[in-house]
Amino acid sequence: MPDLSIDVVAKAAGVHRSTVSRAFSRPEAVKSETREHILRVAEGLGYTMSPLAQALRRKTSTFIPLIVPDITNPFFAELAKTMTQAADERGYQLLLCVTNGDPAKTDGYFTAMQAMYAPFGIVAPSTKVDTEALKRFAFGHKVVVIDRVEGDDAVPTVTVDSRRGIMLALDHLHSLGHTSIGYVSGIAGTHTAQDRMDAYLELSAESGSAPVVLDSGSDLDAGTRGAEHFLEMENPPTAIIAANDMVAFAVISALGRSGVRVPEDVSVIGFDGLALGARFNPPLTTIRQPIADMGHIAIELAEKQNIDGSVDHIVLEPELLVRSSTSGPRT
Amino acid sequence: MPDLSIDVVAKAAGVHRSTVSRAFSRPEAVKSETREHILRVAEGLGYTMSPLAQALRRKTSTFIPLIVPDITNPFFAELAKTMTQAADERGYQLLLCVTNGDPAKTDGYFTAMQAMYAPFGIVAPSTKVDTEALKRFAFGHKVVVIDRVEGDDAVPTVTVDSRRGIMLALDHLHSLGHTSIGYVSGIAGTHTAQDRMDAYLELSAESGSAPVVLDSGSDLDAGTRGAEHFLEMENPPTAIIAANDMVAFAVISALGRSGVRVPEDVSVIGFDGLALGARFNPPLTTIRQPIADMGHIAIELAEKQNIDGSVDHIVLEPELLVRSSTSGPRT
DNA sequence: TCGATTGCTGAGATCGGTTGCAATAACAGT
DNA sequence: ACTGTTATTGCAACCGATCTCAGCAATCGA
């Protein structure tokens, strides 16, 4: 097919290319009659505007990068999924950027997004390290973060209330009769992970029971190690809170390998609300984060900031999702 | 920061912009002395070339779209992960495109990739439907497909040998002593899914045992339904092959809810080799697909095609990955 | 010593749009 | 009929590179 530029459409429609341009991007600036004619002609030719050329001239594009540490982690996958949708509902095109936890890549993506004239970007950081790169760029460029941020007044953020989530988990477990409740820490060194841990420590203390941190590591094997630790204890807790669903899976799996059954022998509750949890064995009781909402809100926040410069910090409410990995303690 | 274009670098270095351009994209065409000076100056200014402007002028970019139906499915997530890496090892930038199984979106992405001057694209189709859109575009534009394709001589493809995979599974199960082996179908209506099913049917027959298809659906609940069907049978098989890991998870989960234990009561083997499987309860025995290889090869194939126009069809060897969801039949 | 090659750099058109400004047409008011 | 808007459209410069064509100096063969 012969290269389809704005000029060929213009010629075909018998108008100047600027008129074609306006017909597409500023409809009210061209007589409706002319516009419809142009659009019809364009349609017939199968013409679409080049996003590249547009971005170059306008110095602003519709590409919006979503920076995540690991798309293999279902939490980020679900986030990516809802965000792509939220994005193109508003005419944006989401670019998925995977850092694999490499801060250098994060940096690279930031400069790339700048070069692509992205109007803003979304970051779901894996470690506090990213925060540095973030600060360097966030100042000049619009970024919204899916996490809490140190001295978080500079960039908009959206998170869920970690404390409330842990509270929900604790309450659920208490109401089932558990009094000794352990904790296995999360995958990454994010503020969110930290917050959950802190909340557990505080709330445990408040309720009078001694906190039992089975593992405070931050890698994928935290779950496995936590389970090992659990197995070695003389007087193990009767329930375990996992910092997120993935480690809950690992915990249950590791426990299962040693013949410990969930929830018969010990209850386990996760944190995330992944769809996957419903198909785990057993289906995972968990604290659900409204991931879809987070996606939409992140974009809204970014747009809002672009318009009136406001920097908001939204914190969403988590909710308890009871499935089958928790029950009363064995008697 | 003042807009950093090639001209400001040129001015700063005291040369013409075409020289700067060459210094970056055709190093051998400029005196090494000059080049180094330019590069130094550019470095100092923190200058990077605009990929947009480059793509526009060159009519070819380094954006390469990866079109997948659902990033939430760990198979595609792992594929995306290894492909991003493979991609930027070669200087490409992967754009993740999620269709949610909507053919219209597939179409949209194709035209978008065209507009972005992508040198080629990678498609992991969800249904045969995508194939149509594919044919419409693949002719004019380079696309490599992660699946088999009808009359597959037009586009390069990479797949794993489904028949061999099923054979591996069957052999494993047979060697454990199973003779009655059921099958639960896969998630999507891809050729791959079809091939696995066909292979099961054929190989079962060959080995003299009647095939037992527990569910042939193609949605996420195939696993659940398969399990239900299993529970209703008077004489259920002693082992189950799941068309992919995700349905294996669902099967085991559903079975577990009814008190049927894996592998004690029934063995289950998956197909994919997801990392997740290692942390399932129990850890999943499965047929591993070399996903990382698929990613690299897909890109190699595309490049090769771009160069010498060759259209190859690579089929990779799957391998058996024994974990804990299979054992001898209960006696 | 002189024309021919070779190596390096500058000019300027071009990629596909956007946009401020000027020009023309259409419409009102008096 | 004449002038002051207002609605439309054309003109041309510009966004940030790339690339062909020339120009110019240095090197080479005879």
Describe the structure.
The structure is a homodimer of 331-residue chains. By secondary structure, chain A is α/β, with parallel strands linked by helices. The first copy, chain A, is built from twelve helices and twelve strands. Chain A folds into three domains: 6-49, 434 Repressor (Amino-terminal Domain) (Orthogonal Bundle); 58-159 and 291-316, Rossmann fold; 162-289, Rossmann fold, CATH 3.40.50. Chain A has helices at residues 6-13, 17-25, 32-45, 51-58, 74-89, 103-115, 128-138, 162-175, 191-206, 222-232, 245-257, 291-308; strands spanning 63-68, 93-98, 121-123, 143-145, 157-160, 181-184, 212-215, 239-242, 267-272, 285-288, 313-316, 319-321. The termini of chain A are far apart. The mean pLDDT of chain A is 90. In chain A, helix 11 links the parallel strand 8 (239-242) and strand 9. In chain A, the strands form three sheets. A six-stranded mixed sheet of chain A has the order 7-6-8-9-10-12, sandwiched between helices. Chain A has a four-stranded parallel sheet with strand order 2-1-3-4, sandwiched between helices. In chain A, strands 5-11 form a two-stranded parallel ribbon. At the A-B interface, helix 4, helix 5, strand 2, helix 6 and helix 11 of A face helix 4, helix 5, strand 2, helix 6 and helix 11 of B. Chain A binds a DNA duplex (30 and 30 nucleotides) through residues 3, 5-7, 15-22, 25-26, 29-31, 34, 49-50, 52-59.
